What we know:
- The protein is mostly helical.
- The chain folds into 3 domains: about 5-105, Fumarase C, Chain B, domain 1 (Orthogonal Bundle), CATH 1.10.275.10; about 110-145 and about 160-205 and about 225-350, Up-down Bundle (Fumarase C, Chain A, domain 2); about 365-425, Orthogonal Bundle (Ribonucleotide Reductase Protein R1, domain 1), CATH 1.10.40.30.
- Helices cover about 60% and strands about 5% of the residues.
- It is built from 19 helices and 6 strands.
- The protein has a two-stranded antiparallel ribbon with strand order 1-2. The protein has a two-stranded parallel sheet with strand order 3-4.
- Strand 3, helix 8 and strand 4 (about 220) form a beta-alpha-beta unit.
- The longest helix is centred in the N-terminal third of the chain and has 37 residues, at about 110-145.
- The model has no long low-confidence stretch (mean pLDDT about 95).
Amino acid sequence: MALWNGRFEKDMDELVKAFNASVGFDQRMFEEDIDGSIAHVTMLAKCGIVTPDERDAIVAGLENIRQRIRSGEIQFTVEDEDIHMGIEARLIADIGDVGKKLHTARSRNDQCQVDARLYLRREIRAIRQELLALEEVILRKAEAYAEEITVGYTHIQHAQPITVGFLFMAYFQMFRRDAERLADCLERMDYCPLGACALAGTTFPTDRAYTAELLGFAAPTENAMDSVSDRDYMLEFLSDAAISMMHLSRWAEEFAWWNSTEFGFLAIDDGFCTGSSIMPQKKNPDMAELLRGKCGRVYGDLMGLLTVMKGAPMAYNKDFQEDKEGLFDAIDTWKACLRIFTKMLENTTFRTERIAEQLQRGFLNATDVAEHLAGQGIPFREAHNLVGRMVKACEARGCGIEDLNEVELAAIDPRLSRAVLGDVSIPACVAARRSFGGTAPDEVRRQLAVGRAWLDVTEQESHEK
Length: 465
């Protein structure tokens, strides 16, 4: 019979037991559950609610259970209902009636929340380390390709020439914000709900600030009802996960394109591709495609919890048991995807000779020519129109803007000449984009230096916490 069965005349239906139980997935929080219980009983002893001997017996019993779970000696079943009841029932069986005092001045409502916050706090720190590892690879690749020119796209069409290093630094900024969002999430959730009890606090003279201190939280949560009835910190984490997975998915999409026969911009290491069961020539970018697909999975985890919470009245409801499977799935998925993508990126090279062939297509220097003309006194809208007419002339002749001769330029507009046009080669166009945040190699190196400084400071702070 369950520990809460005093009001009941019979046990739960077997089908209901299986449906009701969460121990199949929440047992992964056993370390956090035991840590929370040890902090709780330590506080109870400090406040004189249990004796020091009772505290010591409970702590020793919990540590013994911890070791037996780690070794695999203890196996949980639906009879345990959840990790909280599973551990408490074994504690009482091991040390007797003194174990029944552990649950004084707490509820499973606040207990499951302190477990989840402790667990998520640990996982956020681990995921941030994965993000920082990815950022390290991005910086190294950006440095290696700081001067290598590639095609920049808008609307999936040739737009302007950029450096590969510049492209890498764009993704660096995205993943930097992902890491910063996680830090913000961690700061907002750094409050201890333990001691809030079911929803209204307790009549016992507890010291919630001491419990929070023991567990490494900044402070106890302010309102007991809020402590047990919201999951916005989980939603914030899942939102952060969804955004970061979107960033991974976008780059994975480009990997899939660039790996295609039509592009051929990339050489992905064989270890990150698969073959076909029927077509012997195939080398498929399956890891990039899986990363794309797993993004939708994390979106589903976010939408699932948003849907659970949208109609939940105050305070605790059994619906909230649905908060953890999606949370655990998002954590596992995001970490795995970051590790795979980081290693795939590290083992991918750009085929610069193939990219060079594409640089002569699509009039990548058109905007630079317009800006050059505007710099010589021709109003930009006029310059834009003139370059558009140049492009039409080039399409008719099958050449580039830089190939137009004096007669062809003068026919478009008397103000145009080879001298007026100047050097409109692709390398010259890239080198000229020295504006702050631009693609010129020197500017990319400035971005690299700023990125390196941020990464070094962030890694140092992470190691100190």
